[in-house]
Design goal:
- The chain is an alpha+beta fold.
- It contains 3 helices and 7 strands, in the order αβββαβαβββ.
- It has a 3-stranded antiparallel sheet with strand order 1-2-3, covered by helices on one side. The chain has a two-stranded parallel sheet with strand order 4-5. The chain has a two-stranded antiparallel ribbon with strand order 6-7.
- α1 (8-19) runs parallel beside α2 (60-72).
- It is elongated.
- The structure holds zinc ion.
- Zinc ion binds at residues 77, 79-80, 82, 116, 127-129.
Length: 153
């Protein structure tokens, strides 16, 4: 069984996992001699001192996309500091939740940080703030000023 890395979703996923600092990414399956969708696919990413794995997927693409979700959920965009979101439902943070970096946030902080919606454009995951002027990242204890209310016409 071979994995077609020319698949756009797979390529984009591996690219993103690489950008999160993974030293090694592994895509594999557990069951030999069965149809692809029954092979029980997994994806694991190795970081300095840590290994993240997502399991039980129907194919290599599904496994990689699950990893992308796992890595982005509860994380913050390294570029704009916003919470990463993968859908219009918004970021998955809630008050008191432990963020990917181990901190907890209040509702005010979550609202103030805004979100950065990642979308896959063919072979690349693109951050929502792509092309925007980078905002200053707050310090560990820094608070962002609240946004001014919009003026009504
Ligand atoms: Zn961003």
């Amino acid at each position: 069984m071979t994995v077609d890395v020319e698949d756009d979703a797979l390529f984009a996923g591996l690219d993103l996992i690489g950008r999160t600092g993974a030293r090694q990414v592994e895509i594999g399956y557990l069951n030999e001699g069965v149809p692809v969708h029954l092979a029980d696919w997994y994806c694991s990413a190795h970081y300095r001192g840590a290994r993240i794995i997502v399991e039980h997927h129907r194919g290599p693409v599904e496994a990689v996309e699950a990893m992308v979700r796992r890595l982005l959920t509860g994380g913050r965009c390294t570029h704009c500091g916003g919470l990463t979101a993968l859908s219009d439902d918004g970021a998955t943070a809630y008050p008191g939740a432990h963020m990917a970096d181990g901190t907890t946030w209040t509702l005010d902080e979550i609202t103030a940080a805004g979100q950065c919606r990642y979308t896959r454009v063919s072979r690349k995951w693109v951050r929502g703030c792509e092309g925007r002027t980078p905002r200053e990242r707050p310090g560990a204890r820094g608070r962002r000023p609240k946004a001014k209310p919009k003026r009504r016409r």
